[in-house]
Design brief:
206 residues; 51% helix; alpha/beta; 4-stranded parallel β-sheet; 2 domains
Amino acid sequence: MVKEIRIYCEGGSAKRDQSDLLKRGLNIFFQELVGLARAKNIRWRLTLCKSRNLAFEGFETAMKSFPEAFNVLLVDSEAPVTSPAWQHLKQTDKWRLTQEQDSQCHLMAQAMEAWLIADLETLKKHYGQSFNANPIPTAQNVEQIAKDRLAPMLNEATRQTQKGKYDKIKHAGEILQKLDVAKVRQAAPHCDRLFKTLAEKMDTDN
């Protein structure tokens, strides 16, 4: 019976207040899961680890230190995903992962910014009148957009706005709080997989 969900997520900043903003944004984005955990008296802990390697190290340590928790690794895929998550990360990062850990390995494909552009209406409202939607494709599957295109298209779309061009540390946390999660899950299959996996884990084991 799972008593705790521990997520080790790539992202954050050396400045605590900026990391706290991103962490708050993610927790609000995951509020459906946070609420389910609370209802079932399951502890919820999301840890921002700055780099992807630190996220993996945190996950690896948690597997030993918190064996009764459901420990989750959440990182950018960095590239198109053509294999199960554990295998993708083993191939791209040479991490020590096994098929048995696949349900614990989750991807922001190809980067977290894909979640943001999945809800174009929220981006328009957040940045205001001078937001230029033209650089952002209306893709049914945002995970097909190459990682190296995501930040540049957001920069171009937002550079004339009062908030200034997109900055992950300054802007992502606030945008995450406003996103329509259903839209993101529909456009980003690996995000949907994360929600389904955690919901099923908490429903099945309690």
